[in-house]
């Protein structure tokens, strides 16, 4: 690695000196840029880290051709761009869409892939490294073997800012172990309608809760060498059912609320993220007041960059500009750039995007000042985050391996703190460690169901009879660990269940991501509910033992009837790869501390129902509710 970086710096110095000579001979019409005013970046007597950020950026900017500038504004998906094209088009960023992994999805495959891209970037005239983006939204979740944290909804229940910093730090370390230095996280959606498939990506229904957790997470990432990205700007969690885009009922829809509510609920979180120094913001697919966010000049240019003073750069979402209505691709690009988008997440059509940008500048549809503003922001982020010195991230920060014990411990702490106790009749919990426990239900022994979407693949998946979907431990593993150490018995065979003292029933949702998870019913036996829930609920009811139910879900589901048959009920959300930590709390080694980050509706007809907008109704359980032992 070291040798690679030195050669890049040397190459950069060489390239610049060549350019210095050439530029003295160049004629006006040649696109050879002016020589760097400031000393050569990275030259031996002037290490780049010593060069003042602003000076460096301005000197590079002045020396860039329009092609080199436009290249920085284009982001391609790894499956659709060769490393050589990164060089030829001066590409600014490459990324992984959900589940897009190289080779055998091992750390060394990721390092090799990033080295290949960075080597080519280093061979461009200016040698500006790419930044590699990924959705590491609950740990470095694409890579098999990484620690997978609870999804944001569970972290909202845990409501522990210090823990959030640690999660950001561990995520950064595991990302850097694979050479990846840009995280499309945190999602700071304030989800207001739990029928939305992305509810679990939200910390909760309250903007202050969201900011309290997003800020330390952003710092945890960025202070440990990874660029954070607050998404999706703005109002993604406030869309109205029935207004969805891309064929979804609510995802990517219209945030149909007053401007005052929009500012209070959905803009305030960006003010906090900008104050926290977030380096990038991703634009939402949704729209407000009938204007797609991807061409909302007022909200991006005037509010985010103007009033809020955001100095980082704005990236579009996956082909987000393609949703701009009544415009062809060229006009969409023009509209989006002029609205303030600085970089284009164009997984497949990055070449077309590049040429449209070039044409638009030549035709004057996009001003050179706007291009310079975009590129200045991108270069500033790269310079500030040390990407120039360490294109593959700071190796001294990178985890020595994925899934290290100390990282797992932080995930176990997060699991314990995320659990919310909503019912505990006759103190059936905590369980006695020598008790005979019948454990049943689809979520009892399935790491894939514990993790949910955005895990190894975009939509996530379940364990197979042979393999766990991800490395880690299941809820059942934890029960076995504690029972075996204390003379307890764990029964999983329904035929032997009558010998048990209690039933632990673990219900679940199927894994899903984004609009695929939009669910208009939210019952236990329909929509995105796991199709084995019904059988498990009926089996437990027939058995007639005291029953403790846990629900693995990315949002509240309607349990108003069924909960009457249960002695205890625990919302476990999507706890991730360290499911065995659940048992630590159910056996009483740790107390419950989790509180509801969402109002828990009695019926789907109540939705949207939020603590600050209850519409005269009472939910089944209030926002902020949670019992303790
Ligand atoms: C997706 C999501 C966004 C994600 C991006 C890249 O469509 O909306 O959250 O960061 O594409 O995977």
Automatic annotation (TrEMBL):
Q: Where is the Glycoside hydrolase family 3 N-terminal domain?
A: 66-381
- SUPFAM superfamilies for the chain: (Trans)glycosidases, Beta-D-glucan exohydrolase, C-terminal domain
InterPro entries assigned: Cellulose_Degrad_GH3 (IPR051915), GH (IPR017853), Glyco_hydro_3_AS (IPR019800), Glyco_hydro_3_C (IPR002772), Glyco_hydro_3_C_sf (IPR036881), Glyco_hydro_3_N (IPR001764), Glyco_hydro_3_N_sf (IPR036962)
* Record key words, sorted: Glycosidase, Hydrolase, Signal
Example GO biological process: glucan catabolic process
Q: What is its EC number?
A: 3.2.1.21
Q: Which domain of life is it from?
A: Bacteria
Task: Please state which protein family the record places this protein in.
Answer: Belongs to the glycosyl hydrolase 3 family.
Its recorded name reads beta-glucosidase
Native source species: Acetivibrio clariflavus (strain DSM 19732 / NBRC 101661 / EBR45)
């Amino acid at each position: 690695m070291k040798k690679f970086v030195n050669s890049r710096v040397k190459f950069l110095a060489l390239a610049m000196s060549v350019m210095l000579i050439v530029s003295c001979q160049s004629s006006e019409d040649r696109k050879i840029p002016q020589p760097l005013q400031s000393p050569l970046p990275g030259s031996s007597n002037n290490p780049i880290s010593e060069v003042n950020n602003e000076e460096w950026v301005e000197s590079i900017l002045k020396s860039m051709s329009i092609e080199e500038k436009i290249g920085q504004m284009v982001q391609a998906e790894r499956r659709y761009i060769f490393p050589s094209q990164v060089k030829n088009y001066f590409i600014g960023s490459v990324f992984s869409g959900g589940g897009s992994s190289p080779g055998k999805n091992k750390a060394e495959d990721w390092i090799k892939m990033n080295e290949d891209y960075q080597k080519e970037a280093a061979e461009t005239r200016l040698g500006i490294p790419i930044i590699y983006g990924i959705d590491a939204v609950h740990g470095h979740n694409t890579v098999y073997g990484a620690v997978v944290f609870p999804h944001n909804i569970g972290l909202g229940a845990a409501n522990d800012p210090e823990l959030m910093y640690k999660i950001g730090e561990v995520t950064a370390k595991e990302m850097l172990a694979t050479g990846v230095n840009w995280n499309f996280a945190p999602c700071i959606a304030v989800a207001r309608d739990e029928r939305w498939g992305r509810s679990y990506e939200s910390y909760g229904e309250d903007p202050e809760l969201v900011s309290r957790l997003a800020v330390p997470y952003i710092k945890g990432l960025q202070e440990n060498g990874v660029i954070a990205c607050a998404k999706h700007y703005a109002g993604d969690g406030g869309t109205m059912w029935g207004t969805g885009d891309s064929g979804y009922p609510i995802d990517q829809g219209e945030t149909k609320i007053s401007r005052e509510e929009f500012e209070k609920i959905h803009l305030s979180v960006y003010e906090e993220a900008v104050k926290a120094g977030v380096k990038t913001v991703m634009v939402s697919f949704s729209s407000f007041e009938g204007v797609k966010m991807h061409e909302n000049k007022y909200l991006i240019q005037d509010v985010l960059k103007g009033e809020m003073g955001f100095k980082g750069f704005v990236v579009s979402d996956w082909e987000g500009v393609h949703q701009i209505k009544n415009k062809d691709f060229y006009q969409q690009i023009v509209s989006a750039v002029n609205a303030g988008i600085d970089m284009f997440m164009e997984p497949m059509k990055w070449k077309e995007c590049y040429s449209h940008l070039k044409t638009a500048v030549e035709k004057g549809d996009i001003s050179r000042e706007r291009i310079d503003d975009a590129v200045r922001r991108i270069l500033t982020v790269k310079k500030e985050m040390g990407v120039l010195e360490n294109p593959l991230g700071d190796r001294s920060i990178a985890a020595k391996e994925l899934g290290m014990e100390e990282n797992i411990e932080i995930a176990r702490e997060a699991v314990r703190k995320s659990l919310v106790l909503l019912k505990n009749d006759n103190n059936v919990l905590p369980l006695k460690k020598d008790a005979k426990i019948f454990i049943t239900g689809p979520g009892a022994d399935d790491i894939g169901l514990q993790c949910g979407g955005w895990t190894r693949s975009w939509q996530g998946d379940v364990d197979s009879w042979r393999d766990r979907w991800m490395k880690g431990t299941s809820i059942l593993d934890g029960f076995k660990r504690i029972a075996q150490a204390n003379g307890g018995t764990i029964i999983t065979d329904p035929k032997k269940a009558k010998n048990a003292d209690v039933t632990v029933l673990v219900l679940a949702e199927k894994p899903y991501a984004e609009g695929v998870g939009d669910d208009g019913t939210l019952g236990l036996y329909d929509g995105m509910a796991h199709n084995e829930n019904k059988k498990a609920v009926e089996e437990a009811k027939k058995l007639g033992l005291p029953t403790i139910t846990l629900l693995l879900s990315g949002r509240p589901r309607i349990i108003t009837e069924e909960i009457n048959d249960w002695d205890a009920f625990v919302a476990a959300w999507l706890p991730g790869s360290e499911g065995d930590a659940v048992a630590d709390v159910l056996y009483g080694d740790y107390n419950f501390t989790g509180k509801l980050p969402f109002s828990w509706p009695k019926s789907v007809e109540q939705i949207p129902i939020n603590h600050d907008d209850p519409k005269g109704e009472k939910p089944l359980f209030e926002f902020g509710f949670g019992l303790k032992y």
